[in-house]
Design goal:
The N and C termini lie close together (8 Å). The protein has 585 residues and is of the alpha+beta class. A hairpin with a 4-residue loop joins strand 5 and strand 6.
């Protein structure tokens, strides 16, 4: 692991009464951690196994089980008590064992176990990414854990063709060979409803699938059109996160090189397709090659509109564009090249250029099929617009973003947002626990995704306000933020006890943050890092008329008891290679 050393120290001694937002931050970290303990005791046994009926599939599969630990490592890395990380590890180890032991009887893919080598045997990256979301952020909590290190490199190896049982990648054509891939390689035939829905299951009077199916036949019907999975798909860009993590952990260039090789292939395909990301690449490398030349083909692609079996209504599910832009951002993280992101912004403009006026109203397309653009809506196509602007900080990208309260706050237009956002997350947490207490399911009537909406690791407002970052959700990609905090006294990730932080403004080359020590008794020391992985170089920090030169990824702050101040930090973004290393490693 590469090593960095904090060099600059700044002391803050100006008295500051704890602002309300600071007290809310501290309270939310503690409340969420306490709720995690209660949640774990309710839904996991002493082995760390989820108390449910383990199943395979897109309705209720291993990924849903893993989502019950979503954002737990991140909550700890923000500064929550160590109990959160301890319980996460117990649950993650239990999850891997539970779903390695779980087997299908009808679905051929998982008859020997749903996991092999501690990884999904063969499924799509929409679901695989969701299932890995907690693990992907584990390195932010503690990159020295040996099991995490081994898994990170093993998982990446499944896509670098280091495991002969997992020939997922074609290096000659630079493609992942199927939307279904994993530790046992790609599925190179059309998927069946059974592949997606899992083994037959009794529904009526026992289970309540969250998609609303009332029978196993309706579960099969849900996936009737989920067949076109052969060939490459932009959702497979999720696999680049495995290489990113392995590179941030080891510094081995083979991971960076593969990541860029694969993302660059998608850049070339997008340009060759008139600036629109295609959603099927044939095994021969041609655009639309596995879907009779249809670049819009493929499950979760531009033209993926299906019928809801319970109602007969049409449902549009082009899920690739809710997360594939993060794959291009992985290339940004290791190169600093904004062209990877501008490609996505240009695609948004190209889609919206196909607008039309109906009865005096401008409508914008959101889908493309055999008859051309469709699903016209009054709001412009804007998938990934917020993230694109966050990464580029360019005015032309800001114009694509619809009204957003967080951005308005950062621009000085919504001063009440921090308190309102934290109060909102407190209310979310209260409702989650209330629903948990109302839960009447037993382990033999519980699907693995039933507790998902009760998961108490509530981190969205904390990520925005403390880190100046994008909430991670369940997209299966790295954390993007301007600042991150470490506690040098306890030698751990996260903001020290009593300390709170509020990122109040960001520009292309600056971040404004207020730090406060809410304790009137004890001095606290915090290390600020530029970016989640030290990717941003801190140039200087200005505080109360003083300016100190930094020129490194870290800045150490001593906070006197009951003190606080606003800092304006100049930075050069994406100047450093990303690393999981802590400042003192």
């Amino acid at each position: 692991m590469r090593q960095t050393t904090p060099e600059t120290v700044l002391t803050i001694a100006t008295p500051m009464a704890p602002p309300y937002w600071a007290l809310l931050e501290r309270a939310l970290l503690q409340a969420a951690a306490a709720a995690c303990q209660e949640f774990f005791a309710r839904y996991f046994d002493e082995r760390g196994y989820l108390k449910c009926v383990p199943r395979w599939g897109g309705d209720d599969g291993p990924d849903d089980a893993a989502e019950n630990l979503l954002n737990w490592p991140l909550l700890y890395a923000l500064g929550a008590p160590e109990s959160v990380l301890v319980l996460y590890r117990r649950g993650w180890e239990g999850h891997l064992r539970q779903y390695t032991e779980a087997r299908t009887t009808v679905v051929p893919l998982a008859r020997e176990g749903m996991y092999d080598k501690e990884f999904i045997v063969c499924f799509d990256w929409f679901h695989t990414g969701e299932g890995l979301s907690a693990f992907i952020l584990e390195g932010l909590a503690d990159p020295t854990d040996r099991a995490f290190q081994q898994r990170t490199q093993r998982y990446a190896g499944f896509y670098l063709n280091e495991d002969p049982a997992a020939p997922n990648y074609d290096p000659d054509r630079r493609l992942i060979r199927s939307l279904f891939n994993g530790s046992r390689g790609p599925l190179l035939r059309p998927a069946t409803p059974v592949d997606w829905a899992g083994d037959p299951i009794e529904i009526a009077g026992r289970f309540t699938p969250l998609h609303g199916e009332r029978s196993y036949q309706e579960m099969l019907a849900h996936f009737r059109d989920y067949t076109d999975i052969v060939g490459d798909h932009p959702l497979n860009l999720g696999a680049t996160t495995l290489a990113f993590n392995a590179y941030a952990l080891t510094g081995d260039l083979k991971y960076k090189n593969w990541l860029l090789e694969y993302v660059d292939a998608w850049v070339e395909r997008t340009r060759a397709n008139g600036g629109i990301v295609p959603t099927n690449i044939g095994l021969d490398g041609t655009i639309g090659g596995a879907c009779e030349g249809r670049w819009w083909g493929g499950v979760y692609g531009w033209g993926f509109t299906v019928v809801v079996p319970q109602t007969g209504e049409l449902a549009h599910r082009p899920s690739f564009y809710t997360r594939s832009h993060y794959g291009f951002a992985n290339a940004l993280l290791v190169t600093g090249d904004l062209q990877y992101i501008q490609l996505w912004g240009q695609m948004i403009d190209k889609v919206n250029s196909n607008k039309k006026v109906v009865n005096g109203q401008t409508l914008y397309p959101h889908m493309y099929g055999d008859q051309g653009w469709y699903q016209y809506r009054p709001e412009p196509f804007s998938a990934g617009a917020l993230e694109t602007y966050y990464w580029t900080m360019k005015a032309e990208d800001r114009r694509r973003v619809a009204q957003d309260r967080w951005l308005a706050f950062l621009e000085g237009k919504a001063p009440d947002y921090p308190v309102q956002a934290l109060q909102h997350d407190f209310e979310r947490l209260r409702k989650k626990i209330e629903e948990m207490h109302k839960d009447v399911y037993t382990p033999d009537t519980r699907m693995s995704d039933d507790p998902n909406d009760k998961n108490p690791a509530t981190t969205d407002a904390l990520v925005q306000l403390m880190l100046g970052g994008l909430p991670t959700g369940r997209v299966g990609y790295p954390l993007h933020c301007r600042l991150r905090y470490f506690d040098p006294e306890r030698r751990r990730a996260g903001i020290p006890e009593d300390v709170a932080a509020l990122v109040e403004g960001i520009t292309a080359d600056q971040v404004t943050v207020t730090l406060v020590n809410t304790s009137p008794l004890r001095e606290r020391t915090v290390i600020l890092q530029g970016g989640a992985y030290g990717e941003h170089q801190l140039l200087s920090a200005q505080c109360e008329g003083r300016e100190v030169q930094v020129d490194g990824p870290h800045l150490t702050i001593h906070l006197a008891p009951g003190s606080g101040s606003r800092l304006e930090i100049r930075m050069r973004r994406y100047a450093n290679q990303p690393t999981f290393a802590f400042p003192w490693d």
